[in-house]
UniProtKB/TrEMBL annotation:
Signal peptide residues on this chain, from the entry's feature table: none
SUPFAM superfamilies assigned to the protein according to its UniProt record, in alphabetical order: RmlC-like cupins (SSF51182)
Native source species: Amylibacter marinus
Protein name: Cupin
Pfam family, one: Cupin_2
Cupin type-2 domain: residues covered: 69-132
Top-rank taxon, per record: Bacteria
Length: 322
């Protein structure tokens, strides 16, 4: 693989292209400054304006959300896995029918494997623009999102209507639902009553891993974060491990499945037969299966990254105590 071919597999943080109309709450006060990024795969955007950086999927999707302080993402639920790690800022994640069942605050580098089938939302509670990176289960992550009824109702009050085809229509711009497309139905009260309302005590120990803990655990070898036998035991359609400076021993690495590298801190040098590249915090690099490579920090100081590996697991968690 030539350096030019590899560069086509790297999405640089500074080149990310946001969409500000990606979701139904794009006009709702408090949520109208969100930026959605679709990095690998089609993601879950409801807008035709969403830019997709790399369309081929390795068995999962990679995306990101950028928000200024006090901006929030509205309550929704997923049937496929949704994992976030904080790249920049300080974030509060909350869940439940009204967002009051539980919450957790995540700092930079922390990771949250949000349980499927519960309403969840998040907001930037830091003082500057923040960014969280997302891993979504399955090649098609767009079909498993359902909004809380109040989100759909609030959006309609501000001119946005979601069709059953999963597309948004902005009545403020004169758009109307096509004749053959009905509005998205809200969940019935019977269905709403079946959605779990786990507490923070139930969720945090099983689904949250802290950056400082992972730095310690990866001192001599990569820490397996999300896997059937990982720190957060799960089978969401991929595995995630955490790599820091001492994890790798300068040996050539090869995986039989696709791999995505996502640096958190420091600069990492990727070398292979045919070239090399430097990966920086916020960059996303897609490596093909059976790709032999060397990976090591390129500078002194703190260095860490998340490594996402595809596998044959289904695209949703199969382990839970909720």
């Amino acid at each position: 693989m030539t350096p030019t071919e590899m560069e086509a597999r790297i999405v640089r943080y500074g080149e990310l292209m946001p969409c500000k109309t990606a979701f139904i709450d794009a006009h709702t006060p408090g949520s109208d400054q969100k930026e959605n990024f679709t990095i690998i795969g089609g993601g879950v955007s409801e807008s035709a304006d969403q830019h997709v950086h790399i369309r081929d999927t390795p068995g999962f999707n990679i995306g990101a959300a950028g928000q200024p302080p006090k901006c929030r993402n509205s309550l929704h639920t997923h049937t496929t896995a949704e994992v976030f790690f904080v790249l920049k800022g300080r974030w509060r994640f909350f869940w439940g029918r009204w967002g009051t069942a539980g919450e957790v605050t995540l700092e930079e580098g922390d990771i949250f494997n949000i349980p499927t089938g519960i309403f969840r939302g998040f907001e930037n509670i830091g003082t500057d623009y923040g960014m969280i990176m997302a891993v979504l289960g399955g090649d098609d992550a767009g079909g498993g999102v359902t909004w809380a009824p109040q989100v759909i109702e609030d959006a309609a009050d501000h001119g946005l209507v979601l069709g059953e085809n999963g597309r948004l229509y902005d009545t403020k711009q004169g758009q109307e639902l096509p004749d053959n497309v009905a509005p998205m139905k809200t969940l019935t009260e019977d269905l709403l009553e079946r959605i779990p309302e786990p507490t923070s005590t139930e969720v945090i120990p099983q689904y949250v891993a802290r950056y400082l803990d992972l730095m310690g655990l990866s001192r001599n070898a990569p820490a397996k974060v999300i896997a059937e036998d990982g720190i957060l035991r799960d089978k969401p359609g991929f595995e995630i491990d955490f790599v820091s400076r001492g994890s790798l021993k300068g040996e050539e690495i090869e995986f039989q499945d696709n791999v995505v590298l996502m640096p958190v801190r420091g600069h990492w040098k990727l070398e292979w037969e045919g070239g090399s590249a430097t990966l920086n915090p916020g960059d996303t690099c897609l490596l093909p299966a059976n790709f032999k490579h060397l990976l090591a920090p390129s500078m002194t100081g703190e260095a860490s990254l998340y490594r996402i590996i595809s596998n044959d697991d289904p695209a949703g968690p199969t382990w839970t105590n909720l």
